[in-house]
Specification:
The structure is a single chain. By secondary structure, the protein is an alpha/beta fold. It has a single domain, classed as 3-Layer(aba) Sandwich (Rossmann fold), CATH 3.40.50. It contains 7 helices and 6 strands. Strands 3-2-1-4-5-6 form a 6-stranded parallel beta sheet, sandwiched between helices. α4 crosses α6. Bound molecules: flavin mononucleotide (FMN).
Length: about 230
């Protein structure tokens, strides 16, 4: 649970055009139950992936926090071609949870500056393109700029890449970012906890992201605790 006077309540969640948008949706659902103020960033390529994987579209630029929360809660519900079987979360959305969306060129947003303090930033899923741009400090959109800010301020930056196989270029970019302080947390679920649904596989990855953000969750039983 977040302490609400604490700037650590602010979490940046960037969604890029790699496969696995459902990871970001589930992560947002968990963070909103912790009372996070979520800053959502979406790349234009991510819209093609969400259309294909969730048969939907992100809320438009005019959407407010309530619209986003409603969207994030409903989008993971079962439907044709969407049999995630995500387990119901044990708590309700925190009354003080907020979602704010920032456009890709909005460099005036607080999160584009190091003086705006956050708990950290997660790029989930993270495309090889965004990974490459961050690794060379390009900052050509708000996702890349905010990531650069998190690195320079030495705040948690968690990248959840999805690609297979990985080229030497992608591997070198990941190594470079890891050395710069980022956490490379691939969308790579384990099977040792006997998953029975896609939802279990999604939760495996989301649980590890929450662990690295120091956010409480009941998504999986920690190994060795039962
Ligand atoms: C349906 C779909 C799935 C994709 N999956 C991946 C992927 O898993 N990993 C990846 O690096 N790129 C993937 N791409 C390609 C990226 O979207 C593309 O390289 C894009 O330029 C990334 O831009 P962004 O980093 O600004 O989001 C996918 C594209 C589409 C349309």
């Amino acid at each position: 649970m977040f302490h609400h006077a604490n700037p650590g309540r602010h979490v940046v969640l960037a969604i890029t055009g790699a496969s696995g948008v459902i990871y970001a949706v589930r992560l947002a659902q968990v963070l909103l139950r912790s009372g996070a103020h979520l800053h959502i960033l979406t790349s234009s390529a991510s819209q093609q992936v969400i259309a294909r994987e969730l048969q939907s579209a992100f809320p438009g630029p005019g959407a407010d926090s309530k619209d986003w929360i409603q969207f994030l809660e409903r989008i993971s519900e079962a439907g044709p071609g969407k049999d995630w079987n995500l387990r119901p979360l044990s708590s309700e959305i925190h009354a003080e949870a907020i979602v704010e969306w920032h456009g890709p060129s909005n460099y005036s947003a607080g999160i584009a500056s190091g003086s705006f303090r956050t708990r950290g930033m997660v790029i989930c899923p993270c495309s090889m393109g965004t990974l490459a741009s961050i690794s060379c400090g390009a900052s050509t959109n708000l996702i890349q700029r905010a990531a650069d800010v998190h690195l320079k301020e030495r705040r948690p930056l968690i990248l959840v890449p999805r690609e297979t196989p990985l080229s030497s270029i992608a591997l070198e970019n990941m190594a470079k970012l890891s050395q710069a302080g980022a956490t490379i947390l691939p969308a790579m679920p384990g099977f040792y906890q006997a998953p029975t649904s896609i939802g279990d596989l999604v939760d495996f990855v989301v649980a590890r992201i929450c662990d690295h953000l120091h956010v409480e969750h009941q998504l999986v039983t920690p190994w060795g605790s039962s």
